[in-house]
Amino acid sequence: MSDSRSNEMEKTYSPDDLEQRWYEYWERIGAFRAGEGDEREAFSIVIPPPNVTGSLHMGHAFNNTLQDILARYHRMIGHNVLWMPGTDHAGIATQNVVERQLAAEGSSRHELGREKFIERVWEWKQQYGDRIIEQLKHMGCSCDWDRLRFTMDEGLSKAVRKVFVTLYKEGLIYRGQYLTNWCPRCETALSDLEVEHEDQQGHLWHIKYPLADGSGELIVATTRPETMFGDTAVAVNPADERYADFIGKQVVLPLVGKQIPVIADDYVSMEFGTGALKITPAHDPNDFEIGLRHSLPMVKVIDERGVIASDVEETGRYAGMERNAARAAAVADLESQGLLHKVEDYASSVGHCYRCKEIIEPNLSVQWFVKTKPLAEQAIKAVRDGRTRIVPELWTKTYYNWMENIRDWCISRQIWWGHRIPAWRCPECPDVLLVEEIDPTSCPNCGGKLVQEEDVLDTWFSSALWPFSTMGWPEQTDLLKTYYPTSCLVTAFDILFFWVARMMMMGLKFMDDVPFHDVYIHALVRDEHGQKMSKSKGNVVDPLVIVDEFGADSFRFTLASLAAQGRDVALSKQRIAGYRRFANKIWNAARFTLSHLEGFERPSQAPCPQSLPDRWILSKSRHTAQLVGRAIEEFRFNDAAMLTYDYIWHTFCDWYLELIKPALYDDDAPAEQRELTKHVLCTALDSLLRMLHPFMPFVSEDLWQRLPGTGETIMLSEFNPLGQELVDDEAESKMDLAIEAITAIRTIRGEMNIAPSVKMQAVAVGDEQQLSVLRGLADLVRDQAKLESLIVDPAAQRPKTAAVAPLGSITIYVPLAGLVDLEAESTRLNKEIDKVDKDLSKIKAKLGNEKFLTRAPEEVVQLERERYEQLDARKAKLADALERIELIRSESAV
């Protein structure tokens, strides 16, 4: 139990030391630990492992907040929870970081050699690799940190090796020549998913390819003239009547002089460019497929450094030029030889390395591949038959589309940091290739020394095994028996194929079961204007700066409140500040509560509440907790957060605390009722804090610990402790009517500009059954609405000059005679509306001005739009009030 039981509280909520203190306490008592021997129902999540090089960004904050909400909620409903943490070795990214360090020292990995370089990377990992873990703790993440894993751990490395060898021996991994995405800067192959495409302004060069028989020419349009040295054909669509006579002929390849054929292929678009496509099989993925179909030669003319190859006859004088320089030289030569027909401006999607942002180069090379179609078939079937559910469901179609059109996965990378491919060759025996779990010592053919494959595995290969490798596979551990398959995966849509699909394939292959039952895919976090965050735009928001300014609780609640399924999150500081005020509201409600609980002890047997407000709040609390729990279980995080918010702010703070003040403060109130109300107040706050805990863990723990009779930690308390016997539909129904009546009368007071100190009267008429209920609530309504009297009588006369509030089958009239000068109020409202109209006209003119829209910063334009919406809403309210006044005036005149 915590030593922080003091009821002495600061007047305002300050998360600064509170959050760190409670996190240290949770770790000290082992509140996050899972137990594989526990017989309770298991709930497990594996964390999407952040890169060991990374620091917390907004995507991490959002993703891990949602996971933590799930983990904390499921602990509180009695499940045996494992939230498995870990980091990814991030092959390319980590190697780049360490290489930059070496460059600053005037050295390089090649100078160190492979072994020393790997040692240096491990040193870097020991020094900096846990940075993001500490940042996740700062956010309140309740992972089982005792089980922290790393994709290069000894156990995970063993799993990687077993999977590779098994797939190879089953013919599902092979080595072959293929066109891969290549980063000339990192000098490694990349998977399709590691290429980021950006629209860039460029050109479309129209080049003349003369027919070899001298009968004419073909005009070919290309965005990459520097690859033409590797052209081995020109293709046209067989249905294109313009080129029917060209098919089968030869054209002369410009700048090279050799003849290449004109072929027909359905892939060629008749609308793009000229409808004639130059085919460079060694430097374009679509051309590669066409080359295979037509058995074309594959001439590689750009090397691994992005330089025109010097060992290929076709490259001629351009050999040794960097690819961009070769482009400029080729275009100049084409123009001087009269072979450049025209040049057009053209925007195209250009692939970049996801790590260093270098433009990728399709590269024909020998790589290792996973044959994915057989594995994908089972992964598709698992989703179709419901063993794994994707939420929101709209992503299921995307999953099927990608999996049904899957290409073989290039898994080899030409770097040093990573799992080295367990394959060995004999320099003396070309046919010897050994792929084994245990390092072979010599060539089985000649007895000579073997050489291991230089390449390492794609980082995503080890990540694909994450749900079971982290739990000890290939050993059949208790952890696996207890927690696999995992309950759910929370991830962003942009790694649905990088990671999720591959985990599905590997889990089904090696565990004979899906890796998770549910996959919840959340959207992106954008800035307050809906723009994607990027350093170039200068709109990146650092989550740690937000936490330092507003506290982790306020930030977490903001993220949860915005997590609507299928909708991107537009994050603004104003909204976070709003939820900081919410935390302060809870703090003040707790201060009020605790001020009445001095010396109070909870009875061993809970007394039965008697007053309507007490019966109502306990019934409402149980119902709300049920709805919040259901929303969390259905991944409707925003609904869960807003249900919690509305209950705390409006039901508990705005209504219940006001309704019980007479029982707490009135000296004439029975002492027994006062004690009973204290008990209900304490119980309701306890229940409220448990409901809040998954979203705001720190402040909920701090306040809960101050209540009398609580336990070691709110984390392990029951989420909804109130029993079914407290459900009171009658109390809820009566209070709903009372609140509706009080709110209607307060609205009339506000709209008519009647001061709170002015006593009013009200008359209720209508259905006798409903009136009998309201009659029993008359004292409560009168006191809360600050009425002098409330007449509840179906036969009562309607006052001549009165505001009207219809409440279903009841109508409430508030006499205005002597309270409001209707004519003066009408004049005031008209003046207000005129002023708002003028302001709206000015903003409308601005927003209709094209110069303003194009020249003003986006945030300025957005502010004007928001101001317009606010003024428009104010005008609507003023118009409603004016309409009510005019109606009363007209009826009074009758």
> Gap between N and C termini, in Å?
72 Å
**Structure classification:** alpha/beta
Overall shape: it is: globular
Low-confidence stretches: 1-6
Protein model, in words:
This protein is an alpha/beta fold and 894 residues long. Helix content is 44%, strand content 17%. It contains 29 helices and 29 strands. A 4-stranded antiparallel beta sheet has the order 6-5-14-16. The chain has a 4-stranded mixed beta sheet with strand order 10-11-9-12, covered by helices on one side. It has a 4-stranded mixed beta sheet with strand order 27-26-29-28. β22, α15 and β23 form a beta-alpha-beta unit. α17 crosses α20. The N terminus is likely disordered.
List keywords for this structure.
single chain, 894 residues, alpha/beta, four-stranded antiparallel beta sheet, four-stranded mixed beta sheet, 44% helix, globular, disordered N terminus
